[in-house]
## 1
Amino acid sequence: MMTSATHTGSRARGSASLRHRLAERGVDTKLLLLVPAIVFALLLFVYPFAYGIGLTFQPLAATQEQWGGGFFANYVAFFKDAFIFDSVWITLRLALPAALFNVLVSIPIAFKLRSKFRGKRMLQTLLVLPITLGTVLTAQGLLIFAGRQGWLNRFLLENGIIDQPLQLVNNYLGVMLSLIISGFPFAYLLISSYLSGIDPSLEAAAKTLGANWKQRFRRITLPLLAPGLATTFILTFVLAFSVFPSARLVGDASGETRVLALMAYRAFSEQLDYSMASTIAIMMGVVELIVIAFVFLGRSFLYKGSTGGKG
Amino acid sequence: MTRSTNTFDTLELKNVGRSFGGQNALVDLNLRVRAGEFIALLGPSGCGKSTALNCLAGLLPLTHGEILIDGKRIDVLPSEKRDFGMVFQNYALFPHLSVEKNIAFGLQMRNLPKAEVTRRVADGLALVKLQDQAKKRPGQLSGGQQQRVAIARAVVLEPRLVLMDEPLSNLDAKLRLEMRTEIRRLHQSLGLTTIYVTHDQEEALSLADRLVVLREGRVQQIGTPEQLHNNPTNWHVADFMGYRNIVDLEVESVVGDLARVTGRGISIMATLAQTAAVGDTVRLAIRPSDLVVTGPDTPSGRDAIQATVNVVEYQGREFAVEVTTTEGQNLYVHAYTALLPGSTVRLAVDPSRALVYRSSLDGVAAPRELSAVR
């Protein structure tokens, strides 16, 4: 009895065509549409990435001699050469506060811009416009506006408000300003879309239950928004961490803003040490991954389900 | 759960109005609510009933008028200080908090001692029979259960007024009936003053002590379910109260309260619900259940309407029938026997159940009628 049942069962399964069974598992001709994407990914990402990793294990003879470690000489150099390793901290010192600032400042602005008012569209456009500028244009603008001979300093000097020009660019502050100008629109756009995903009736409900605005924000909106804030933080952090043009143009490229991207570029173009450049690039990715891992770890404790809104 | 101690004698809405950019959503709402009353605001979508509720809750500022509790203005208070409980149409449960914490939220906002919060949450859960679901998140509950959490969350505060905004409209028919009974039971046991917004006349009639019918932001009629059901003040209210046959006719003669109205293949005696003179064009309103099928064989009285059967729908106890008069007017009738489509029938109606209204709605719902109801 048992055997006959299993027998008919397996025959029923066998009678469905192979193609039909594959289709049930999502394998059908539509998968061919993935081919161009896979080819691109292989050629433009996987292969160069693997090649770069390979390069890091082919240190120059000079590096091996100076730092030892055989194949790993580049990594030994990365950690032992204070000139290189310090740049990890320099980069983090720029990227973390910039990302944090962008996220924190976006929250109240996104909040305010949720309601309808005259000129809202205009204001939104102004806030998002810097996205279109690009870092080089931003850097040039900063130099013209805030440089030693810039409008701002000239105005302040000529009106006797200050005696010495303010040092606003070609240092840490200059790069920070540039990171905020280019990173803020991203943070604002992301956060306002997360915010619009929260059903406004939840806040209305909290209101009728007697919660004042602080309690509403802390108990209802913030917990629902937090996963979105984490994601936004990561994205703006990654953007800021790979800062390169502004670190050179409005920063102090050999001092305060000697970021990792600059170090990699220098190894590549000035020292012609491709393997060291690759090592720095790979280590940039590792540092980013560590920060992201921390943020996601924190995010895993948060509520991540539906927020009831249109999002 | 104990009866709310936090009660009042009267809640009064005086000329309450709200306009949105010059568009009047609510005009001159006057209403006096006694403690413990269950009031239903009834009307089609866009009639201003939700606006009225949001104004009461403090979620929308008034543009005209005032709201008073025992003579003290409360429309100037922010929503969180009004001490009203509100049940939202989409429940608006906090998705990141468990059922328990949702119910506890309002109590915690009032800084009650922990032990009391725990006790009252347990009471609230018991009230809506959700003790087993206390630790679950709202997303894990069915629609009916979510609805009960929303109600528990509002009533554990023992608010002086409970506002409900179409709380049953997202539920399926069976659950809606169950929850309706549940809401009525809760109101009877807790005695919380309730204002309930709905577009479903059956829901309003079965739940409310008094109904307020709104149309385009204006009050049409305020009264008990019986008053509205039997004596709608204008054809719009009649239409809403199930007088499905609304026909434009002409007054042929008037005798006291009765008038003979004619046209569209109909000539019957009907009751004047609003004054009308001979020759006026009026609206006749009749419930399908008040139109009696007398069959083609009965001698043709003057008041019989001759009609042809169009569509017959079986509805369990009776048949809903659409017929057409000799002059092409469609009428809806309830019959207890299956009529054959295409056959001819005669219909009769008790003159007291056929109501005659003016065609225009302007100037109706005069204050005189409202104060008489009050």
Note: Chain B has two domains: 10-230, 235-358.
## 2
Amino acid sequence: MKMKIIYTIKKLAIISVLLILAMPALFAQADRSMYFLPILPNARIVNPAIYPQYKFYIGIPFLSSVKTGFENTFNYEDVFQKKGDSLYLDREYLLSNLDEKNVANINLTEELVTFGFKSKNNYFHFRIADIANSNLTITKELIRFVLYGNGSDYYQGKTINLGGNAFNLTYYREYSFGFTRQIDQKLNVGINLKYLQGIANLYTKSIDLTLQTDPDDFTITAKSNIAIYSSVPGNNGNDLQPSEIFTNTGNSGFAIDLGGRYIINEKFTASASLLNLGSIKWKENLKSFKTEDPSKAFVYDGFNLDDFLNDDKLDQDKVNEILDSIQNEFDIIETEDSYKSKTPSTLVLNLDYNLTPKDQFGFVFGSQFLEELIWPSISLGYTRKFNRDINLMFSYTASAQNYFNLGVGFGANLGPVQFYLINENAIAPLMFSKASFYVLRFGVSLVFGNNDKKEITVTEQTPE
Amino acid sequence: MKKSRFNFCRKLRSLFSEAFLVLVVTFFVVSCGKLVDDFNFDLVMTPDWSSEFAIPLINSTYAIGDFFGDSAIEFVQTNPDNSISLVYTSDEMYSSRFEDIINIPDQFFNYQSPFIAPPLPPGSSFEIMLEFPITIGAGSPEQRLDSLILKNGLLQLAGQTNLNRDVTELTVKIPEIIHSATGEALVMVVSLNNPGGQQTNVSYDLSVPISDYKFIFNNTSYSTKNQITLECMLKIVGDNNPDQSPYNFSITGSFSDLEFEFLFGYLGAYNFSLTDSLPITLFSKTIGGGIEVGPDAIDLIVDVKSSTGMPVTFGTEYFYAYSPVNEPNIVDVYFNGAGVPNLLTIQSPDITQVGETVETHIDFENNNLHEAFNIAPEKLFYKFVGITNAEGDSLSTNFVIDTSRISMQLAVEFQIFASISKFIIEDTVDFDFDKNIENIDHLLFRINTTNGFPLNASIQVYFADKYFHVLDSLITDPDQTIMQGAPVGGPPEYRVTSTVHKMTDANLTSDRIKNILDAKKMILRAGLSTTNEQLVKIYSDYTIQIQLGTIAGIKIVNN
């Protein structure tokens, strides 16, 4: 049995590493390390089947869980070379450090309200949180285009493919009602039902653009297939008022988290969760841009000089009209179509191994799904439970282009006050210029009625 | 043992907690400092490369009409063979109105006449007629007035008599002055009563507006032209006053403020002038170079309108072309060939066309303007002098209306048929370079011309400060041909046979860009010549495509 499990773990690890190496644009935003601090009731963010060890918990408003992080496929030193006290931007150096597709991801979470309580074998949870995700996918070709320009020798007579870039930004408020049920001594299941209040969104469904520059007269021939949707307070042209942001309830959506946790035996616990399966329908403050006919080529060979002139002087209004006409030439139309954006759903698989009652090893495979991209990661963790009130964890995470990220974190109860801090790349703050991966989460909650004392005591009395 | 172990664990936990706290704080402080150091973008050096972005700026196609915008004095005319002529039309020159040219001066007269009034018994009466001729003069001695219709005038009469009758009446009549509406002659009546003969003299004073009257001269009845008769009739009533004959009668008077509405007769000679200049804008920017106009390429057309009913002949006091840059700077213009005086006789309305305007159109095809245009004149200067009745036919009958006048307009039709050699034009425009160019490393301007005109062009752009001190230029080789003239076929069409493409690059390095930052003027200078400096014609279907594109070298980082 043990061998079979170890084999399974190995197999999972190999598949995960292969996935990471194979996918050029992958990263994960699952809160992997939450698994490695079982003391935290917040751990159910990554799996609603996690049954907190407290009868009741409540987060300190606005401080119960704050998360910031980025996961990129490149870092600062991939861009700039340091020589002495100076930094240099070398084109070829930069390009040699880039993948064909490069990803930058920033995630911010601010938990406003959260609490939960136990009722027999059931646990009920409630949470309100503001969540902002931004994902930028930028191709090497676009960077090369910016660094060299279409007028350079490199691009003489060539067709430049500037497709494959994307920028997605979502800011929404989540109202979550959760329920966890202890089916029996071994199996927990859980669910979070979420109402999502979409506040702002930028969604690039496609930005495909090819460009060809005539080497003699610089005539530009372009084809575009652009579909960019946005719902941003202030899109209506009026000055944006802060109240508009927080009362913006016209964009609604729903999502669901599902999870299960199974204690295989005293040593192994397996869990799985599917998070954020849902979408938001954006219906307010809309502005979208779409190419009307992607098959149509746009040729720009300069403007008629007379169009610029009015009484032999440059007419700025006419210049603006002409600039507007470029959009028309591209056949890019502006609409206010409502649209739906999927929430970035995540699959998390976890296997814990309890070496001793106080020493636990864990393996987490996470994969986030967004449109056509899959962003997997793997984490290995070691958790030391000093007692029922303190957890210390160390982790190793491998993500896209980030294969060596050592994390550290702790959770501590000082009486009913629980602090926690997780840093998934402990070295990064000392060398941010080399970091392309960083996740920091911390929070303060109040916990009451710790049930874990008895379990640990029992475990201590019956060591393996 | 258990208690000791418990205490140890507590101490260890406390130590661990403190150490961890110190570690976290240290970590935070160190990492913040590191963050600031790592992301100090001021340390990024300006790279030795620049991104080069190419963009087409201008793509314009021009026909001849686009270069010469129609205006009040210039327009482009397409001839039946599709060749192009530039037509320069002068402003219309107007003579003064003839009411200002023909001035009828105030007329004065003064007569004294003795008369005898026989003794009359009371109750009887006696009439005495005294006649005084008055000659109305308006101009030359040859002038013959047949009729004069007034719109303004005043007749004033005054005089006295020593007649000592109780009752006397003076009636003054001028048969040639007739009321325009009633047809009745002008008659004035005044009393010259001298009760008891007490007064030595009896005076009278009359003033009559004659604006509604007309003068009808009967030149056949009098030996003197333009004569009217003042008929003074004294009606004397008998009384017992002593007879003191002979008596005296005096009359003095004037016609003043005479303004005619119509004037008929032979009006004689009057002079007037028409002076103006005609800009030839084609050459307004010329600063040098030669042009040779093809034969019969220029017509001079004179249009005259006259509402004056008398023959008018025009000559020129001067008519010359002037160029400030090409010698000889002045060339006299002859309408009918060199040395032949410029004379033109215009059509006038005849006596059946009173109130109408008659036009005269004269096309001087044998003019020598092609010689004048060889100096690329900036302007034509001219002064026409008109004279009425130059032939002096005093038996003829003229007429003028007060509003009669003569207008003249000149047109110079220049069929563009010429050869040009090293013809240089220059223009200056205000210029203000965008100062926000810190990130621009260099600029390349590429000019592509596809020329359907038989014209070579080299262009230079000078950037100058507000005092016109040249700071830099756009093109390093000013003689570089930017526009290659299209090849031309033979006579008589002299047509372009194909278009010619030419690509020219002009580079502005960052140093040169800095030179022109303070430029306030842009001086454009173009050197033009026809293909092979040969005679060419310009046709309406000729076009030139000008494409201007730029490659801008941009420094992404500029510290």
Note: Residues 2-38 of chain B form the longest helix (37 residues).
